[in-house]
Specification:
This protein has 76 residues and is of the alpha+beta class. The chain has one domain. Helix content is 41%, strand content 22%. It has a three-stranded mixed beta sheet with strand order 1-2-3, covered by helices on one side. The radius of gyration is 12 Å and the shape is globular. The N and C termini lie far apart (25 Å).
Length: 76
């Protein structure tokens, strides 16, 4: 997924919630294809671990330096 703003759109968020979706999105929408692929490949191990360990629904952001929960908000 490329649009992290989905978490602010009630109808789309409800659809994700009802379906129990586990979503990972690239945060920077201005990345070129090669940079998007690089970022996803670099974070693939973390994405796979989160997907295997946590039931949905959730949205995680994929950053150059890691993967962080976007929704639901996790208390820190």
């Amino acid at each position: 997924m490329k649009d992290d703003k989905i978490r602010f759109r009630p109808a789309e968020l409800e659809a994700l919630t009802l379906a129990g979706v586990r979503a990972f999105c690239l945060i920077n929408a201005n990345l070129r294809g090669q940079e998007m692929a690089k970022r996803l490949v670099e974070q693939l191990e973390t994405i796979n671990r989160i997907a295997a360990e946590q039931a949905g629904p959730y949205i995680y952001g994929v950053y150059a330096d890691g993967v962080r929960a976007l929704w639901p908000r996790v208390a820190t």
